[in-house]
Amino acid sequence: MHKILLTFILSILVLHNTSTAFAVEGDTLVPPSDFQAFDTPNDNGKSISLRWTSSPSESPEVEYVVYASTHKNGPFITEVLRISSNTMYEEGSDSNFHYVEIKPAKFFNKESDVTDGRSSYFFKLVMMSIPENVTVKNIASATPKGNWFNWKKLNNFIILIAFSTLVLLFIEHAKTNPNLYLRKISGLDAIDEALGRATEMGKPVLFVHGLNGMGSISTIAAVNILGRIAMRVAEYDTTLKVSNIDPIVMSVSQEVVKESYLEAGRPDAYVQDNVFMAASEQFPYVAAVSGIMIREKTAANFFMGYFYAESLILAETGASTGAIQIAATDSYTQIPFFITTCDYTLIGEELYAASAYLSREPKLLGSLRAQDVAKGIIITALVLGAVLATFGIHFISFIFKAS
User: Fold this and answer.
1) Is the pLDDT assigned to residue 319 strictly greater than 90?
2) Which pLDDT tens digit goes with each residue over 252-268?
3) Res. 327 pLDDT band, cuts 50 70 90
4) C-alpha separations of 186 from 178, 346, 400 in Å
5) How far is CA 205 from the centre of its chain?
6) Spatial CB neighbours of 88, under 8 Å, sequence gap ≥ 6
7) What HEC string does 122-133 produce?
């Protein structure tokens, strides 16, 4: 009885597999019902968009291949696209259409094949699967044209105009209100304290540049801070020593310090040799500066700019002499070392804000204040967007979409 039952079940399975196999072999590819080519909107005239409906025969084993020609009658021998048939669906269309953008000039690179920007390209869509291929009957054509404006980036343009207006408004406001509020930066407020201590002790102040040249934004910011420190040092009649690793940075620093002494009414107190080049290599530079700290017992050390592995050696040496140390860097790998060894540390963009914070110059002050307000608006939008997205409302995400 069991043998009869087992034989019956096996017979059913064999018949089912046989019928399935015949069904698969008997299936034919159903080509897409529509195939379109058109100029890609909001571009520079270099691309063409292709769009076609999904086919019920799509599977990972079936491919879509697009051939192109510069003539309507072919030959269609240039392959410009080959994708799996179940990929590249049009965004937001619930997978009912395929959509892809191609750049014909990438494939037609011979002088005889390249169009003049006013001619059309012709495309043929083929659905490929072993053992058969099916070609969509219609041939699609399009002519690439450039657009004057990319409407997809309209939000970016509006944000740019809004931010620029905000900057101009705050600059005008800063001209009439020099005491415009800025977020307090403790390290900059402590500069006078450090210089005052050095004056009382009768010991020099040391300013240490980072290792980058004048092409670095952090070095430019450091030189701006140096000018303000030099002016205060001139007023307090204290010695300022500025070490450099780059000859161009040294020349710029000499001029900045000289100008600051002149502005403070103490040109006679400026000593050019106090702004010097310590060394031209990283660790010889560290050794030279560390020696200055130990020999002269500097009372205040300023580390400003972009630093590398030498940062901890410099800061540890300065801390061992008992000096007040203020550091500022945008090198995120060195910030932890400065935080642990210095009295005050300016982190990242605070280095760039320092010159505006110290000088209170209206253009710098207004720009910095506008940036702070813009950051507040963006943070608010992010929080609001997260809350709305939780409830399925996504419109705010399109406001900040890149394209």
Assistant:
1) yes
2) 999 999 999 999 999 99
3) very high
4) 20, 8, 33
5) 37
6) 98, 99, 100
7) EEEEEEEECCEE
| Range with lowest mean pLDDT among 73-77, 214-218, 321-325, 390-394 | 390-394
Q: Is the pLDDT of residue 192 over 90?
A: no
- Euclidean distance between CA atoms 132 and 272, whole angstroms: 85
Q: Which residues contact 284 (CB under 8 A, 6 or more apart)?
A: 278
Read off the tokens for 282. Answer: 């990283």
Peptide bond into 131 cis (omega under 30): yes
pLDDT of residue 111: 43
- Which sequence spans correspond to the domains of the chain? 35-142, 180-359
What CA–CA distance (Å, rounded) separates 24 from 20?
6
In Å, what is the CA distance from 290 to each residue of 147, 225, 240, 301, 355? 60, 22, 16, 11, 27
pLDDT: is 160 or 4 the higher one? 160
Tell me yes or no: is domain 180-359 CATH 3.40.50.
Answer: yes
Q: Do residues 60 and 86 make contact, with C-beta atoms less than 8 angstroms apart?
A: yes
Read out DSSP for 365-383? HHHHHHHHHHHHHHHHHHH
d(CA 3, CA 10): 11
**Cα–Cα nearest to 219, from 208, 228, 229:** 208
95 pLDDT tier (thresholds 50, 70, 90): low
* Topology given in CATH for the domain delimited by 35-142: Immunoglobulin-like (2.60.40)
